[in-house]
Amino acid sequence: MSKGCLAANEWICGEYVRSRQEELTDATLQHIGITVASVGIGLLIALPLAFLARRYRVAASPLLALTTILYTVPSLAMLALLVPMLGISVSVVVTALVLYSLTILLRNILAGLESVPEEVRESARGMGYGPLRMLLTVELPLSLPALMAGVRIATVSTVAMTTVGGIIDFGGLGNLLFSGLDSVFKAQVLTASVICVVLAIVADLLLLGLQWLLTPWARSRSRKPVRARADDAPSDSAEAEAPAGATPLAGKAV
Amino acid sequence: MGVVADTWSWLTTGENWSGTGGVWDRLGEHLFLTLVCMVIACAVALPIALWLGHIGRGGALAINISNVGRAVPTLAVLVLLTISPLGRSELWPTVIALVLFAIPPLLTNAYVGMREADRDVVEAARGMGMSGGQLLARVELPLAYPLIMTGVRTATVQVVATATLAAIAGGGGLGRIITEGFNTYRTPQVVAGAVLVAVLALLVEGALVLLSRWLDPMRRRTAGGPASGAADADAAAGRGVPVSATS
Question: Which GO cellular component term is one of those annotated (chain B) (predicted)?
Answer without folding.
Answer: plasma membrane
